[in-house]
Give the backbone structure.
Amino acid sequence: MNRENEKKSFERLLNREGVQSLIASFICIILGLLVGYIVLLCINPAGAGKAIASILKNFMYFPRPAVALEYFGSTLAKTAPLLMCTLSILFAYKVGLFNIGASGQYAVGAGLSLYLALAFQMPWFVCLAAAVVGGGILGGIAGALKAYLNVNEVIAGIMLNWISLYSVNMLLTKVKESSTTYTGALRTNSPGALLPSMGLSSLFSGNRYVTIAIPLSVLIAVWVWVVMEKTKLGYELKATGLNKNAAKYAGMKEKRNMILTMVISGCLSGMGAAFLYLSGIEQWSCAQTAVPAMGFNGIAAAFLGMLHPIGGIFSAYFIQHITSGGSYIDKMIYCSQISDLISAIIIYFCSFVLFFKVCMKRQLRKKKGGQ
């Protein structure tokens, strides 16, 4: 009798939405790592085990706790902007829109924040606000094209990505270093534009890249969850995404909701760029010809986290963890691009999260019907 009750309890547990999402995500992660390991074996079997271990260890690669803690802080500093792009993607997707233009909004956020910091010596909060507004405006353009001209937001987003990239490159050439293609370092050229750490850096062995961006990104994830699940605005936005004609019939302003969704989504992407570049951890290259990958990685993290803001926190960290861990692979055995390849394989499998979840539900229904 106890065994039968335990079996029923286990089946009820498996039927829960959150448990299914968690299992599906783990399946994708394991499959991605397995394929990555096979690729390493094909290239050089001798170092494959050590290489995959380095990716999984990341900051734990260093034996000294103080050094490991410092590099852990750097991973978190890069997770914050990725989380913002993740929230940008899932916010739009919840409303039935696919914000593939997150990379362009991210680029605009980076361009405006860095230009105001380096050209006008603006403080960090002004630069951050400019990044948010810039990303929101670009998102709003795609939303308006969708709402009033029925232009697919994917097409509009892709075109705006390239327009944004080259516009930002031209803008930031005015504040780049004379001897390189990179913008000037904020720490030496505009220290007031750096995000404050509020004492957080001391928790990570004095890592100066650890700023308020980390806790802020988590708080914003919670805010997105509250807005989408607990407010009238979130209900209206999701209703518009499910059926805009029904939403219009119910008295909702469906065009306004579409534009507002893309504006908020763009604001999140722009803020993510400010979180990265105003921490001083990276400089923008004015010669880059590819749109920032952060926006596309946000798509993978959003689906790995099952389009849930809280799940997005953990999925964004995981993707950044393996991406950073790839830099510790022995470059004498494997080429420098192998870490990006393995990260891409894992990210690719993240797109199958929903597929595995559907398969799981189907099997559970068959089992229940057979009983």
User: Anything to note?
Assistant: Residues 65-94 form the longest helix (30 residues).
